[in-house]
Every structure is written in C-alpha cells, then in structure tokens.
Design a protein that fits this description.
Order of helices and strands: EEEHEHEEEHHHEEHHHHHHHHEEEH
Shape: globular
Number of strands: 12
Number of helices: 14
Radius of gyration: 22 Å
Largest sheet: 6 strands, antiparallel
Helix content: 25-40%
Strand content: 5-15%
Length: about 475
C-alpha cells in the first residue's frame, strides 16, 4: 500500500470509544479511526494491520449483508506517515476526555481505517456547503431473553440495560439512574419511542450525542456535566424555527425539542429507500416473549392504569435490522458459556484447529453461512459450539452498535428523488441513517461477559 501524504493541521479530534479513537478532516467528509491500547499493552504492526483488515472484512462480508448496504460503511485500511501520526497524537491530546487517557493512540504501526464522516450527508463532497445536524444513539439490546437456561427469572422481566444502571451508579460511573429503556425505543410505538428519546436527552450518558456541522453540541462528556436543553434548542433553531415565532424561553425550547424528537422517531421508523427491494439476509429466529421491561417507567404507568398496547417495528427500518441480528443471542450468556468452555477444551488439545473453526476469521461467506444455522439442538460437537459462540459474538456486536442520523434542510436543487425526506412543521429535512461501531466482539471477552452478567444480576437483586 502506498503511503498517503498528510498534514496534521487538516485533522481534529472527533471522538473515541473503548478501543479506538477517531479524527475528522476539516475540508472533506472523511474520518480516520486509530486503534488505542493501554500503555503496557502495545501490539505489533502485523497484529494491528490484521485487526484493521478483519474489521473491514467483517463489516463488508458479514454485517453489511445482514443489516443492509444503505446502513453499513466498512471503510478501508490505509498506510500513514509515522511523523504525521505522532504529530497528530500530540495535537489532539488536549481535546481527549480525561477518563479516556489511560489508553494511548497507536502511533507505531502507521495504519488506520478511513471511513466516511457520518455527521455529513453521504452525497456531500465537501464540508461547509450545507448546514447539518446529526444524532448518534447507542440503543443497546432491544429484547428480553427467552432462553430456558437462564437461572434467574428476573432476566425474563427486566432488561440488561436497566439492571446495569444500578451497578454503574454504585461504581460511581453516573450520578443517577437513567429512565431510558431500550425496549421502549425498539417497541415501534411512537409515543413510547418518544418517551425513550426524552429520557436519553435527560440522561445522555454514553448513549446519545448530537452534532452540528460535525461539532459535538450535546452529550455527557463525564458524570459531572449536565447537558443544557436551552442551549441545544438555540443550536437547532435554524432547523426547527417554532411555529409560534418565539426564539427564546421555555416555550421555544419545548417546541424545538419536540420537533427534534419527532424527526428522530420518524427516521428510526423509516425504511432506507422505498424504491429498492430488501436484499439483506434473513434470520428466522423465534421472537415471542415479553415486549416490555418491568423497570421501564413508561410501562409501569401503562400497566398501573390497566392498559396494554402492542406495536412492532416496520420491516426494513434500522431498528428492525439491528434487532434481527441481536436475536442471534438465543441462549443468553448462561447457556453460551458452557459451549465456550467446550471450544476452549478442544483448542487446548488441538490449538491449530482454530483456523479450521474460523475462531478469528477469515470473515467470508463461509463464516456468514454459519450464522444462518439457528438450530438449538446440541449434537455435542465442537462445530455446534463454535457456531453458537460466533452467533453470540455477532449478536453482542449488534447490541453495542450505534445509529447515526444526519439531517439537512432540503433545498430543491440539493435533494434527490431517492432521498429520505422528513417533514417538520416548517420545512422538509433530508436525512441519512447509518450504523456504526460494528467491530466483532472478541472471542476472549466471553468469560468477562459471563462474570459481568452475574455481577449485574446479583447486584440488582440485592438492591431492589
């Protein structure tokens, strides 16, 4: 691969997660995504290149066919000058949250992922030509597990996100419990989804960010910061000029925020392109089970008043695609962990068999086909165990992905006939919806997932 010439002054800090850091270009709609590690756990150049290429292959050959090409952008691995990477690392360091600085950006391999900047509309070829705002949501798991191998019945009634809130408060990660429940957002009921999004605005935690022209304007950066809805409304007034004409005060803020939540809801429920057939791979997994969580504040009120309501997500919308892949976790971690141990025992005896079993790729059509086998009849083979382990890893990836929705005022000369258009009280917004954070969850993390699950459930039962 040919090394591309770069100037660190053209790039700025964009954000980071647990395992990667992202910078965005100031003049073009692209980002670079670098791996990051604890200082004492540096990887070799070969390991980093393989990891990045696996990420591309997994997005291209596995997640895109299941989630849809409209939603998934897998990017490309590019080589970079080491001087550029080192200078860039120094430049962005002051912009990084203190809580993230225990890990350092990879400055030794000279490789990164280049991806489209999803805070711009995909059709834009340069920045600054159109006013945009973007909403990034990490919805989490949208269903309650059905597995008969679950030992604590509370897991059939209260979702993982709501239980985990209690442990996070106890550990000091956040100051108060969020009223957001993923099952409300995945319900398909507009009123219930509106409530879920309102709760995300009130307690964004790590689950909501809002950008204006690529700049973060809303979202908790740490546990002590409190987002300001008045400030958010002021930022977005050009998109949602209230019908009552007010541009300040509580009525103005309420009008803008209500419009914002309505267009987000419409974007989440809209199919990607009504002119195209849906050619994504289908997973035929039994659904059933409860559609509400006992910890949901919205559902508590509904049930208290003796009401019941049923809705479902429209086929093809982004949440229905994500939920389909999440449901590959058919056994829950409690049923999956013994199968993981079976694989581990096999690999201890035959370590080279990890290649035949596709434990760490390649992520190709053969790997994709194993995900379609949704049988839960255990034939006691290692092949069956590997299939369930891989399905679990893909499901966990979908449970931790993010949705990016980008809006721009629709001008007659800029909107194509195939664009997703959403009507506000004053105008139309052109919209694009994407799914990001689709790195396959590591095989070696499964024991930690098992321990964390027990910790979350035990603490919830002890304190509620």
């Amino acid at each position: 691969m040919e090394v591309i010439r770069m100037d660190e002054n053209d790039w700025k800090y964009h954000g980071e997660g647990n395992k990667s850091l992202v910078v965005s270009h100031s003049k073009s709609p692209s980002v670079l995504r670098f791996l990051k590690f604890p200082v004492e756990d540096q990887k070799t150049c070969e390991e980093i290149l393989r990891h990045l290429q696996n990420t591309v292959d997994f997005g291209k050959h596995i997640m895109r066919p299941f989630l849809g090409e409209n939603y998934v952008h897998y990017g490309e691995v590019i080589p970079l000058p080491l001087d550029f990477v080192k200078q860039l690392s120094v430049k962005i360091q002051p912009d990084r949250p203190e809580s993230r600085c225990h890990k350092v950006m990879d400055i030794l391999s000279g490789y990164a992922l280049r991806l489209p900047n999803l805070t711009t509309l995909h059709k834009s070829h340069c920045l600054g030509s159109r006013l945009t705002f973007s909403v990034e949501i990490k919805p989490k798991c949208g269903f309650l597990p059905l597995s008969s191998q679950i030992t604590e019945t509370i897991k059939h009634k209260v979702c993982r996100y709501c239980m985990h809130q209690h442990l996070k408060i106890a550990n000091g990660k956040w100051k108060r419990i969020s009223k957001y429940c993923p099952l409300d957002l995945f319900s398909g009921n507009k009123q219930r989804m509106f409530f879920a999004l309102t709760c995300l605005l009130q307690d964004a935690q790590n689950n909501l960010k809002i950008f204006k022209n690529g700049e973060l304007i809303y979202g908790c950066k740490d546990k002590d910061s409190a987002p300001d809805l008045n400030d958010l409304a002021h930022h977005l007034k050009h998109f949602f000029f209230p019908a009552n004409g007010l541009t300040t005060g509580p009525f103005f803020t309420t009008a803008v925020i209500n419009e914002l939540l309505q267009v987000i809801t419409m974007a989440l429920l809209s199919p990607p392109d009504s002119c195209r057939t849906d050619d994504t791979k289908k997973l035929y997994i039994p659904e059933g089970g409860r559609t509400y969580c006992d910890a949901s504040y919205y559902c508590r009120e509904i049930l208290k008043n003796g009401k019941s309501e049923y809705s479902e997500l429209p086929k093809g919308c982004v949440l229905s695609k994500i939920l389909q892949v999440q449901r590959l976790d058919m056994m829950d971690i409690e049923g999956l962990y013994p199968l993981y141990r079976r694989v581990e025992r096999h690999l201890q005896e035959l370590p080279n068999d990890s290649i035949r079993l596709h434990i760490d790729g390649p992520y190709d059509d053969r790997f994709s086909e194993t995900l379609l086998d949704v049988s839960t009849e255990d034939d006691l083979t290692v092949e069956y165990a590997v299939t369930k382990v891989q399905q679990y890893r893909v499901a966990m990836t979908a449970k931790d992905c993010s949705v990016m929705i980008t809006f721009s005022p629709c001008l007659q000369d800029t909107c194509s006939d195939q664009s997703l258009l959403i009507q506000t009280s004053k105008s139309k917004l052109e919209c694009s919806v994407s799914i990001l954070d689709l790195d396959l969850k590591p095989y070696e993390d499964i024991p930690n997932q098992y321990k964390l699950d027990k910790k979350i459930v035990n603490y919830f039962l002890k304190t509620t």
